[in-house]
Write a structure and sequence with these properties.
alpha/beta; 2 domains; 9-stranded mixed β-sheet; 3-stranded antiparallel β-sheet; 9 helices
Amino acid sequence: MQSYLQTVEDVYEQAAISPDATLCCTDSPVWRLPDLVIPPIMLQMNYGCGSTVTPRDLKGDDTILYVGVGGGLEALQFAYFSRRPGGVIAVDSVAAMRDKAAANFIEAARLNPWFHPGFVQILDGNALKLPVPANSVSVAAQNCLFNVFQADDLTQALSEIFRVLKPGGFFATSDPITPAALPETFRRDEIARARCLSGCLTFNEYIETLTSIGFGRVEVRSRTPYRYVTPTEYPGLDRAVLLESVEVLAYKVPDSADGPAVFTGRSAIYAGSNETLTDEMGNVLRRGIPVAVSDAAAMRLGERRDVIVTPSTYHAKGGCC
Ligand SMILES: C[S@@+](CC[C@H](N)C(=O)[O-])C[C@H]1O[C@@H](n2cnc3c(N)ncnc32)[C@H](O)[C@@H]1O
């Protein structure tokens, strides 16, 4: 019997040969940026669940590792920012997908005078054993691949990302998640797993998996509806489930004084009578001014009568503590 990983590769080999607009979330919006023209074939081959391209976090000198290139849509968008040979390294284990992405980058160069196919170096490699040296990239990204991995393989894939990231670098990741654990019968459906449906973790599992690898700071950028799946389509389900898509940045930095700093879009506001409040960790809050805080800091500060803590928006964009 072939392994589930081979089934995944077979599904994406087929999706490279015959683009499948029903695979993953093909209508997730793409970045509109000046002078960026996305070839239609890349839009047809948008096999992602969200976006991992975060313009506000990218610097011109970043080296970006992209795992699971697909049709090249996001690698092209990253190259928009790096704009130099090898600025983006795209790894994929499926030969047909690498070939298709290479052809799509030639088309992208025809439509975008600023772009050269050499701006994305395509490598034959596996997410479980990345062909990239330790501490060599400032940004790593994956979109809708890691959710297909079973627990041990997911740990391995994330450990590889952590290994290749430079200290201080970040991992941009997007995957579907489930509101509650999915039934085992559905989880065993390898085709549904390969199509980014049955391997989903819950939100808490997703975040805890990242922090357990060592990412000391995690920012949840977005949570949006992804797919409504029913027992009629998938008999392994015992009920209909609305899957979500999550976008997260995970930083290779040490934990904060409160432990891993998970930002879900919460703010703390000092509402006391002094000008400022200095909390027990040394953070200074000015009266009436919201400060983005991690969930751990929100819990700690929420115990005070003179601090108001707001709920998670799931649109975190950094934060102090
Ligand atoms: C769901 S698609 C996502 C493609 C792309 N990230 C996007 O957003 O359109 C998964 C991609 O990962 C590749 N892939 C599958 N298994 C892999 C593995 N073990 N290591 C690296 N790439 C893999 C597939 O060939 C495919 O390009």
